[in-house]
Design goal:
Blueprint lengths: L1 H26 L12 E3 L1 E4 L1 E2 L10 E2 L1 H13 L3 E2 L2 H8 L9 E8 L3 H12 L4 E5 L1 H10 L11 H5 L6 E5 L23 H20 L7 E3 L7 H9 L4 E3 L6 E3 L13 E2 L6 H8 L6
Parallel strand pairs: 2-6, 2-12, 3-4, 5-6, 6-7, 7-8, 9-10
Antiparallel strand pairs: 1-11
Helix pairs in contact: 2-4, 7-8
């Protein structure tokens, strides 16, 4: 009798297990992870300046409160910040990326990056990339002016950043100019000799590679001044050693392992003053990832 009861109990357990398995497939379908072949979407936010004085607020400058709210919103929505080097390593098959990766970039190298931005990044264990114009850093180092409303980072400032929090990247040595008799950023002039232009970019990159290398930075990632580029500028930068280029095109990017070209001409979403953080991040980023 006891043997029959045990057999009955075992049958009930087996049948119950089968039914539970079938029901779990109906009500709790298996969630498939995104394969490397499908690529990973990576939004990039573009910042410039952070100030507590309203006179500076506008398209390229926001308040400290706005930036703090941005980080709080990103954290609440489950975003994880990554550096350009992490993304390059992922595409090269040397590293993995966290869920919901996002890149934060700061153009020009304002001193406010050190005084306003980095302390907030550290609160959330977040990271960002700062794109340096060499001539600005050189002048700041020589003058010693330290007003974070308009001055720039020095070479000493850049050397003092924790690489886990800040990656220092290339924004040209002294090609942050627009129109007139000058070229627009790094982009070649229409009538410019191709050989001379390629040599110019190689010279500028070589100069900055030495300067940035001395403070823990690199020229692997290029941020186009004003987002101005051409087919020839891409060719020149790749020849000079660039592995990633960033523009000002407002779009979400998809990178794929093994596809190095997916790292070039990446878009960035500019963060202006006066837009609620929750609305901005949801409409410009979160909704675009669905």
């Amino acid at each position: 009798m006891r043997m029959k009861n045990r057999q009955m109990i075992l049958r009930i357990l087996v049948v119950g297990g089968i039914l539970l398995g079938l029901l779990s497939q109906v009500f709790y379908p298996v969630i498939e992870t995104v394969s490397a072949q499908d690529g990973i979407k990576i939004p990039i936010l573009m910042y410039h300046h952070v100030s507590d004085r309203s006179i500076y607020w506008g398209k390229d400058a926001i308040s400290t409160e706005e930036f703090a709210n941005d980080l709080q919103t990103l954290h609440r929505l489950g975003f994880h910040t990554v550096t350009p080097s992490q993304v390059i390593a992922y595409v090269e098959g040397k590293d993995i990326l966290p869920p919901k990766p996002i890149m934060l970039t700061f153009d020009d190298g304002f001193l406010s990056f050190k005084t306003k931005v980095v302390p907030l990044l550290e609160q959330y264990n977040y990271c960002a990339a700062v794109a340096i114009v060499g001539a600005y850093a050189q002048k700041a180092s020589e003058t010693g002016s330290r007003n974070d409303n308009f001055d720039y980072l020095t070479w000493e400032d850049l050397a003092g950043f924790d690489p886990r929090t800040v990656e220092v990247i290339y924004h040209s040595y002294d090609m942050h100019n627009v129109g007139g008799s000058n070229r627009t950023g790094i982009k070649n002039r229409r009538s410019e000799n191709e050989e001379s232009y390629l040599a110019l970019i190689q010279e500028d990159m070589t100069r900055m590679a030495e300067l940035l290398g001395a403070v823990g930075g690199n020229c692997r990632t290029v941020v186009y001044p004003y987002g101005a580029y051409s087919d020839l500028s891409e060719q020149a930068l790749k020849a000079a050693g660039a592995k990633m280029t960033l523009t000002c095109a407002a779009k979400i990017n998809t990178v794929r392992q093994g596809e190095m070209d997916s790292l070039f001409l990446l878009g960035r979403i500019n963060r202006p003053h006066g837009v609620n953080s929750e609305y901005f991040i949801r409409t410009k980023i979160e909704d675009k990832l669905i």
